[in-house]
Amino acid sequence: MPEPLLAVRGATKVYGKRQNAVTALRDVDLTIADGAASITTIAGESGSGKTTLADAILGFTGLTSGSITYRGRDLAGLSRRGRLEYRREVQAIFQDPFGVYNPFYRMRHIFDVAVRRFDLAPDKRAAQRLVDEALAVVGLRADEVLDKHPHQLSGGQRQRMMMARAYLLKPRLIVADEPVSMVDASVRAMILDIMLRLRDEHGISFLYITHDLSTAYQIGDDICILYRGEIVERGETRAVIDAPQHEYSKLLIGSIPVPDPEVVWDLDAPVSLTGESARTP
Amino acid sequence: MDPTLTRIAEAEIEAEEAGARPASPWRNRKLVAGAVIVGVILVSTFIGGLVWDTTLARAATSPLNLPPFWVDGGSMDHPLGTENSGRDMLALIVVGSPTTLRVGLIVALISMLVGVVLGFLAGYLGGAVDAVIRILSDTAMTIPTLAIMIVIAAYIPEMNATTMALIIAVFAWAGPTRMIRAQVLSMREQGYVRMARLSAVSDTEIMFREMLPNLLPYLAASFIGGMSGGILAAVGLEALGLGPQRVPTLGMIVSQAIEGSAILRGMWWWWGFPAIILMVIFIGLFLIAIGLDEIANPRLRGART
């Protein structure tokens, strides 16, 4: 069996101590195969541990137990150089397209920092070429956006700049933590489209973290349903969404609104797992 | 991000598109008024030093106990009068005011420098570093500062303005440290800090190149606050007679006026002029501080400042 790109094994994260302990992740296993790029969806409600999982993979938070290995090397034991390499190959897009820009600097700051830290270009002209190319991938023009301050751009432009920055580093994997939940519908379509293009044309895999199963259905290859810190169901996205097995998956999938005026939204449907399963599509 | 901020940002974009530059927040009336007041004091003492003979600030260079020129017995040779050891009041004020301001400046510089370094380390690194720094600063804040300063000042044989400023600074860093730590704690959860970490930016660089610039108005306000606090502490020490004895400062003039029973003898000009200058300096610094505070916290800005 070939070495997977990313392997999470037995990941458990407990916040707090003793009585106040909250288990955010419980024995989570996840592998993203090397080779053909894919989009793996992690779906679940708020508080299910999605973001904790993303933070652990990005190295922002440590695990209580379990391990995360990237190409067979444990993240916890990476050398300084190894960490820099990992940072370059595993990038992220966040939910909030406002807070990720330092309001003190112009937009070009995030590109300048990335170019400098990862030593991407020998000189300024080469760096500018790389940035221009990355912006072109997301459909932006350098002279329109780079010298603006963050508050002068729209949410969609900012989110696309995030993707351009991630692309600039030519990563192998992008952790996309709810990238479309704070932008409007047209921008959502654009962002999802960019994700598909990065996967198909540039071989970048995604770990797509969302609570929105309809977008997962559109673009996802594999899906893991996370419930109270545990993966309760996993498989090929369409197979899982069309025929969910676990009670919680059924509930989650049942709560997708149907865009059909004939279907009446069932307000009396049970919202907890203890009751009867909610509507199935 | 706060949706109201987004709305403000959008309004600013619209204003810029309409061709109107948004009014700079730095053109705050209180800030400008305070800066003008402090500036006038600095410039006039500087000019005073050029046109007036400052050697008259030494003892026995002028007649004793002359009132200001507009009172009977006063003369234009000593327009603000003289005190009881033959020093000219105008010369004393011209030499004393900048010294007093300098003491404040040194105290503010040192306490802010220490505050920035310790506050950032505590807030950003957290853990044991935070615990140690927090205990130290809490301890420093609970010590009755004036009492300790009196003890230290009494042990120093030759006190000059700089030494006094250093003594005050020993106790002045705790406030800024705690304030900056609290700011850093909330800032380090910001998206741009995570972004910088994703770009493998070092901790030092995150602290001082990503976070620090966003704190600048805050730091400026607290710098000015530290300056007036430093001057206040210095005047307190001087009024108790523990200040520098050779170089005149505003507090020292007041202290000697008290020793010379100026109030009983009706020599109001002896303590009155330095007190007025001190008041004006405090009002000026206070206006600058609240002006800067309004820039740092737009919520404090009234309907229209």
Automatic annotation (TrEMBL), chain A:
Keywords in alphabetical order: ATP-binding, Nucleotide-binding
PROSITE patterns registered for this protein in UniProt: ABC_TRANSPORTER_1 (PS00211), ABC_TRANSPORTER_2 (PS50893)
Domain (ABC transporter) ranges: 6-253
SMART domains: AAA
Molecular functions per Gene Ontology: ATP binding; ATP hydrolysis activity
PANTHER family on file: ABC-TYPE DIPEPTIDE/OLIGOPEPTIDE TRANSPORT SYSTEM, ATPASE COMPONENT, ABC-TYPE DIPEPTIDE_OLIGOPEPTIDE TRANSPORT SYSTEM, ATPASE COMPONENT
Name used for this protein in its record: ABC transporter ATP-binding protein
Organism of provenance: Jiangella asiatica
Taxonomic path: Bacteria, Bacillati, Actinomycetota, Actinomycetes, Jiangellales
UniProtKB/TrEMBL annotation, chain B:
GO biological process: transmembrane transport
Protein topology in the membrane: Multi-pass membrane protein
Keyword Membrane: yes
Parts of the chain that traverse the membrane: 31-52, 103-123, 135-156, 162-180, 215-237, 268-292
Positions of the ABC transmembrane type-1 domain: 97-289
Compartments reported by the entry: Cell membrane; Membrane
Keywords: Membrane, Transmembrane, Transmembrane helix, Transport
One Pfam match: BPD_transp_1
InterPro entries assigned to the protein according to its UniProt record, in alphabetical order: MetI-like, MetI-like_sf
Coiled coil start-end: none
Cellular component GO terms held in the UniProt record: plasma membrane
PANTHER family: OLIGO/DIPEPTIDE TRANSPORT, PERMEASE PROTEIN (DPPC-2), OLIGO_DIPEPTIDE TRANSPORT, PERMEASE PROTEIN (DPPC-2)
Similarity field: Belongs to the binding-protein-dependent transport system permease family.
Name of the protein this chain belongs to: ABC transporter permease
Origin species: Jiangella asiatica
